Amino acid sequence: MYGNTTPIDRETLLTQANKIIREHEDYIHGMKATEVEQKGEVLVFRGEFFMDEDGIPTPKTTAVFNMFKHLAHTLSPKYRLQD
User: Fold this and answer.
1) pLDDT in tens, 37-60
2) How many CA atoms within 13 Å lie on the side-chain side of 73?
């Protein structure tokens, strides 16, 4: 089911994901992955989005969404969460 992926614990994976985020050219201060779950063969990352005072997503929210998508594409072929 998971091909040639390596098992990894959540804390280690989130540490690696946040390093990728900070080093990415589209990094925005405050961008951080705080959760990850396995959905089939895909790692799904979550974290805070940038909302205005009315709770409406700002343009930075799109950048966060795209970063989490980048993490899924980059890390899912390499790793699977171990329970």
Assistant:
1) 999 999 999 998 899 999 999 989
2) 6
- Full residue range of the structural domain in which residue 77 is found: 6-81
Amino acid at site 15: T
CATH code of the domain containing 54: 3.30.300.360
Please check whether residue 6 is in contact with residue 79, taking contact to mean a CB–CB distance below 8 angstroms: yes
**What is the SS3 assignment for 43-76?**
EEEEECCCECCCCCECHHHHHHHHHHHHHHHHHC
Q: Cα separations (Å) of 16 from 43, 45, 54, 77?
A: 13, 12, 33, 14
pLDDT digit string, tens, across residues 3-41:
799 999 999 999 999 999 999 999 999 999 999 999 999
